[in-house]
Automatic annotation (TrEMBL):
The keyword Cell membrane applies. Keywords: Cell membrane, Membrane, Transmembrane, Transmembrane helix. Its main location: membrane. It is a multi-pass membrane protein. This is Metallo-beta-lactamase domain-containing protein. It comes from the Bacteria. The keyword rRNA processing does not apply. One of its GO terms (cellular component) is plasma membrane. The lineage of its organism: Bacteria, Bacillati, Actinomycetota, Actinomycetes, Micrococcales. It is found in: Cell membrane. The chain crosses the membrane at residues 27-48, 79-103, 267-288, 295-311, 363-381, 393-413, 419-446, 453-476, 488-506, 518-539. Residues 54-73 are annotated as: Disordered. It comes from Agromyces aureus.
């Protein structure tokens, strides 16, 4: 079943990205079905021919040398043809499912609303628990969460359940199965995305129905468990819900980064181990009660279903649950269900039901890790036992097998290899099962016996704290990330290197010359990608510091300022030249932009936006300006960005920083004085970005907003003389960043502005003299400054 599973995955991956939903969209499925029928006919024809001869009284042709075949050879040919038939049928089934799903998306009323850019009234049913957003915009003074769901109705009419996503206020009472009603605009997402539409700018989100009873109990249990875990101290308390039920909402940014760096995030993702514990416990309890085999299977299935409801159906959960169901059905029917076959059948069934899972990284990592354990752990343990004690070999083989299988997928997410991942998993492995089992028991017991449940959670806190310590320790070691080629080429090279390495390790056969050649190939497959990537990266690291908070890109006469907060990236304007912005982004290693702020529509602020098409998650902008704004926004939206028009009062989050829009007021005409002015507070202290606001608009801003001293200001209008002295005196910034081109012809920055900053004791950072500059906050209001022409410190004014 491994071949059909791989073929199904490949067919699903290609089919969901089909750009045409017409007749051409059905062609891959039709071709696969025709091929499957042809193979089925080739398999069935000899049998029909023999039966026809028998009914006619003739003898079948003798087997043997006359027809050039033998029974054994015919059996091999039949087996190959039967396998090919299953492969084609599975691939055709999932291609058909994908084509039908794409047609359903194209016929949804949301498709017409997205094309017309109109607002519709929708009712959706949540299919996941709310999740925090890395970069979000909201109108009130509270954070936003992301909710995935399916459409129930559009403008009061029933609609097919196409998948959608929407950002809502964190205070909205929403759980899996709840229904929400609101007005919003629809934005169509690329065909390959699991979500068909993004609903933007929702208005007055109102819960219209709670979860059904068979889901509501789990919501209350999760909420109570999370509340009790909040009383536990430190990172251990944050990890207990993750180990027990996969709830990582309490995991902070620092701990999350440490878990990722040490390859321990899988411990807080519910997977096969959790499902195996639940089903085995239920099966064993039913056996202890004297129930029959099939009754025990039913009890285990019910327990498994309840566990899936409790942890919510994440990609790794449904993979593990489907595999467990296949194994339990095999037990019920007295048929042995091997692990690899069960995994393959589960993959085929799930991808046939939802082909978009083929592009889900969580599903891919879960399936890859399981396949690695099933196919590689035992051979690795046997080979390692030749050089170490068998128990140690078994313990070491498990994380190595999982890491080898998952690493090509991880390369697609982050082009680097975790050097200490295996060691961290070895150290954390003894603690993980204890934390998981005891934590789950605490979750179940807590509503019935609160004291006992909390005591169990305190016990689970001990292994959880140990895991957190291991994560921080591994993440703090030098050289923890080995850079690798990015994207599909990097993954394919790593697959080839892994295959060659495993052959050398596990297969002692082969001539000395062949093994030497394979060893040389392995060295090349590893050394070349590392050299290609690490060489330039090492030069870049030597050229500029790896840790920085604000980057002022040298894009000529224009603005392009980057802010980094806990890994989230914001870009303020894009400058006049896409090539110049692209050079800066490549120099800093930026491949994703969570928040793009377009202050206004002048070319020196937005003409470089082509460089970031396809990289942006959210675009914040001021009042639209007909074709000028459409030329910039349309490609960004097509590339997957969500546009949000803002006025004073809008707020948002970027990593661990908060931001608020101070200007423009509503109904402001587009132009320099309608520039989006944004204030940001976080690790870098406080900063304000003034766009191209002129003196009169700056005076009105000062009168309308509550302003005080800031650590950094993006100087308005490239340092022109059109500035409000009172505004800068009120801000009293430590650093003033000026985006300006050398010999710009405007006289920017002017002597008036530079004299004003000098009187205030503000250090100026100018792109015309410094080139690209990086500022790193030191935490005491001062900055460490690196520029292309030197480094230094910027201290706050006494």
């Amino acid at each position: 079943m491994l071949l059909p599973a791989c073929a199904t995955w490949a067919a699903a991956w290609m089919a969901v990205g089909a750009p045409d939903v017409g007749i051409a969209g059905w062609m891959p499925a039709a071709v696969l079905w025709v091929l499957a029928l042809a193979v089925a006919g080739a398999l069935g024809w000899p049998l029909l021919d023999r039966r026809g001869r028998a009914r006619a009284g003739g003898d079948p042709p003798p087997a043997g040398p006359r027809d050039g075949s033998s029974p054994r050879r015919r059996a091999r040919i039949t087996a190959v043809a039967a396998t090919l038939l299953v492969v084609l049928a599975c691939a055709a089934l999932t291609a058909t499912s994908a084509a039908a799903g794409l047609v359903e998306r194209s016929r949804s009323p949301l498709a017409a609303a997205a094309e017309a850019r109109s607002t519709v009234d929708v009712v959706i049913e949540a299919t996941t628990a709310p999740r925090p957003m890395r970069a979000a915009v909201w109108a009130a003074d509270e954070p936003m969460v992301r909710v995935d769901g399916v459409v129930v109705s559009v403008d009061g009419l029933p609609a097919s359940g196409v998948p959608v996503t929407v950002g809502v206020s964190a205070s909205t009472d929403v759980e899996w199965g709840a229904r929400l009603a609101f007005s919003a605009r629809a934005q169509a997402l690329p065909a390959g995305e699991a979500t068909a539409f993004r609903l933007v700018s929702p208005d007055r989100v109102a819960p219209v129905a709670g979860p059904p009873p068979w889901l509501a109990w789990a919501s209350e249990l999760r909420r109570g468990f999370a509340g009790a875990a909040a009383a536990l101290d430190g990172d251990g308390g944050a990890l207990v819900p993750g180990l027990a039920i996969g709830d990582t909402s309490a995991v902070g940014a620092e701990l999350d980064a440490a878990m990722k760096a040490s390859s321990l995030t899988h411990l807080t993702a519910v997977s096969g181990a959790n499902c195996a514990i639940v089903t085995a416990a239920a099966f064993g309890l039913a056996a202890a009660c004297g129930l029959g085999r099939r009754t025990r299977v039913v009890v285990a299935l019910v327990a498994l279903g309840g566990f899936v409801v409790l942890v919510t159906p994440q990609a790794s959960v449904i993979r593990a649950a489907a595999m467990a169901v296949v194994i339990l059905i095999g037990v019920a029917t007295s048929r042995r269900a091997g692990g690899a076959s069960a995994l393959s059948v589960a993959v085929v069934l799930l991808l046939s039901h939802d082909p978009w899972l083929a592009r889900d990284y969580g599903f891919a990592l879960s399936a890859a890790a399981t396949a690695g354990l099933l196919l590689l752990a035992a051979p690795l343990a046997r080979r390692l036992s030749d050089v170490m004690p068998t128990p140690l070999a078994i313990v070491l083989a498990v994380p190595v097998a999982a890491q080898l299988a998952c690493q090509p997928v991880l390369i697609l997410l982050d082009p680097a290899i975790s050097v200490y991942g295996v060691a961290a998993n070895l150290l954390a492995a003894p603690a993980a099962p204890v934390g998981t089992v005891v934590g789950m028991l605490g979750c179940l017991v807590l509503p019935l016996l609160p004291s006992v449940g909390f005591a169990l959670m305190q016990v689970a806190w001990v292994p959880a704290t140990w895991i957190a310590l291991v994560a921080h320790g591994a993440a703090g070691l030098p050289g923890g990330r080995l850079p690798w080629l990015p994207d599909a080429p990097g993954a394919l090279v790593l697959v080839a290197a892994t295959a060659v390495g495993l052959w050398l390790l596990l297969d002692p056969r082969g001539g000395r010359g062949l093994r030497r050649g394979a060893a040389g190939l392995l060295v090349l497959l590893v050394a070349v990608p590392i050299g290609v990537v690490a060489g330039p990266a090492a030069v870049a690291r030597a050229a500029h510091p790896g840790e920085w908070d604000v980057a002022d890109c040298d894009v000529g006469q224009g603005d392009a300022v980057i802010v980094r907060s806990e890994g989230a990236i914001a870009l303020f304007d894009t400058g006049p030249d896409p090539a110049a912005l692209e050079r800066c982004l490549e120099f800093l290693g930026i491949e994703r932009i969570d928040l793009l702020v377009l202050t206004h529509w002048d070319a020196d602020h937005v003409a470089g936006s082509d460089a970031v098409v396809g990289m942006v998650q959210t675009v914040v902008h001021g009042p639209l300006d007909d074709e000028r704004s459409s030329r910039v926004l349309d490609p960004l939206v097509t590339g997957g960005a969500e546009p949000v028009e803002v006025t004073a009062g809008r707020r948002g989050v970027l990593g661990d920083s908060r931001w608020s829009v101070l200007w423009p007021p509503p109904h402001t005409a587009p132009g320099n004085d309608a520039s989006v002015v944004l204030e940001l507070e976080g690790r870098l202290g406080s900063a304000i970005f003034l766009g191209d606001l002129g003196e009169q608009a700056q005076a009105r801003l000062l009168a309308s907003a509550s302003l005080g001293p800031v650590d950094l200001v993006k100087v308005a209008h490239h340092g022109s003389a059109d500035q409000s002295e009172r505004l800068y005196e009120t801000l009293s910034p430590t650093v003033g960043v000026i985006g300006v081109g050398a010999d710009n012809g405007y006289g920017h920055p002017t002597g008036r502005l530079l004299g004003l900053l000098d009187r205030l004791g503000t250090a100026t950072v100018r792109s015309d003299r410094s080139g690209t500059s990086l500022l790193s906050a030191t935490g005491d209001g001062a900055f460490r400054l690196w520029t292309e022409r030197g480094i230094g410190d910027v201290a706050p004014r006494p």
